[in-house]
Each structure stands twice: as C-alpha cells, then as structure tokens.
Fold:
Amino acid sequence: MDDSHHDFGWQGIRLRVPSEWELGRVDGDMSSGYARLDDARMVRAEVEWRTAPVRGARRPVSDLVDRYIEQLQKKADKPGMDFSVRRQARFFKDKRWLEGSEYETFIWEADYRAYNLARACPECQRIVLLRVLAPVGENVEALVNEVLPSLEDHPRQNDGGRRFWSVYGMRFLTPEDFVLKEHQLKSGHISLTFEKDGGARTLRIHRLSMARMLLKDRELVEWYPSFFNKDLRDFRHTVSAGGGQDNIRGHDSARVHGEPRSRWRQILRPLPLVNPRPRRYLEGAVWYCSEQNRICVVEHLSKKRLEGDDDLLEELIDGYVCHAQETTLDTRSDDGLAAGSQRSAGVGENRDR
Structure:
C-alpha cells in the first residue's frame, strides 16, 4: 500500500484519500448522513449520502443539484459574497467508471473552490454528493481525479458482503445487517457499537492507543477485566490467555466468555426503574499489537446463549486490521476527535482548522 494514501470508510461510503485527511465531523446514519475530512489546515472533502426512497420515483440527480446550489446561493447572498457555479464541469480525465450512472459534475467557487460529483449508484440507487475543496487558485485537479473516482457506496464482493469501516487508522469489517448505534471517537480510545434485531445481538469494536502505558507490564488477562469493569458487572466472566488455535496473528491475546449473573443477584443490585439492563451472553477477544502499540478488542453480545463455536467472533477478528499495511501518518489520528450530530460548513463559513 502507498503510504501517501489510505482508505476512509463510514456507513458504507469508502474513499481513497491522502493519508493526512482524517474524519473531522460526522452525522446521520446509513440511510442519510454526512462526513467531513480535514487535513491540518482546512476542510478537504465532504460527502453526503441518502438512500433512494422505497416507494415512489426518485428525484433526478439534476433536481437535487438545483436545490443544493440554490441553498449555497442564498448563503452567499447574505454577506454579499461572490459566488459562481459551473454546471456539467469537465474535470475528469476518464469517466468510464461512471458509465451506467446518473450523475452530474459541477464546480462552485466562493471563499473556496469545490469540485463536486452528484451520483446515483445504478446498483444500489444510493445517492451521494461528494466534493473536494481547495483554496481558490490552487490546482488540485490531479488530486480530484484520484479521490472522486475512488468512491464506493456499497460493500465489495470480495469482502463477503461485509461493510468496511476505517477511521483514524482503525479498519475493520462488520456484517451488513448490523447497524451502527453508538460511536466514541476519543483520543486514545475508539469504540463503535453495532446492533441487530433491536439489540438482540450487539457488536462492540474497540481500539486503544498507548498500549504499553496502559498495560504497565500486566498481562491482557489482568488488564481487560480491570479496564472494562463496568461493562462486565452483569456477567459471570472468565478471561483466558490465547494460544494455539486462539492465537491472533502471532500477538499476545486473550479470550473472554461471559454469562448473565443470576436473576436474584440482578434483582438485588440497584437497577434503573426504566429499561433495566438486559441479560446477555458475551464472547470476546482482545490482543496487543506491538507493531502499532495498540490494544484491539472485539465483543459479541447476545440475548441467547451462543452455542458451539462463535463464527461471528472469528469473522470480526479476521476483518480487523491491526497493523498490516499501516501508514506512517496514522499516528496523528490518535489525537483527533470527531463528534456526532455535527453539520457541514457552508459557503462563507470558516473551513480552516
């Protein structure tokens, strides 16, 4: 892999971008949402997506572009800012990858210049608006021709129908039928929670930085129950050292097994009167990646007992990239923060970091 670029993945959107571009803001869900990528200086890319309506005809892409430009023009008019748009702009060197798609390319220019692609995927009918931004006068067409054609909006066939996630150097795959419910993107600890069947099954994926400092010469079997003490309070759990068939890519590892505590014990514990904690079973794996000084954790929780081998857990481990093909610039991502429920910056708003 070229260290100058990496893959960004969120809610089924996948892009190949310069390594210094990382998630700055994110909002929405699988059906409709927004993500923003920044470098050290400014906003560099924004992507918006929505799922085509189940019933009724989808609006033409050109109509959506009309509405978007109209909104930008109104924002520019308020402060009296110069604003111009070039529709059907020709900045792609090769458009063969767009064959069969309904799309429009356009450029708008105000305080920044934005190269835009609005596209409806012919396979999944997902509608995506992707733009790359640059200061006026900066020639970025070569970059635009790298980033925009890398857009993917549904899982790759060779990923086995699993959805790709990649943020701040953390990369993994999840089954398509699990939806993101929570995300915590903090410096040093990234955690994403996915659910299926109304919470009957839950996946939790973690990555912790500065592992050597966290472990302090302790083994994983000691560290895990101490660090995740609150999460384990409703389980009778065991943590055993990995090895043999439980080995994870040659790393120090541990396996976690948990069963719900007795109902009587849970009754005696102080519980909330509304939405008490459900009784669940837990299977998990944790390993220490010395190459990147990180601890990786995957957990599968289910309201029903997990009989036999937990194939889903092994699938999660297999799809989690802890160190292979890592870029030298991924270390800066540990200091990044991304918050949910954030909106994009509009025309005339500060895009500098």
Q: What stands out?
A: The first strand starts at residue 5 and ends at 10. Confidence is low (pLDDT under 50) at residues 325-345.
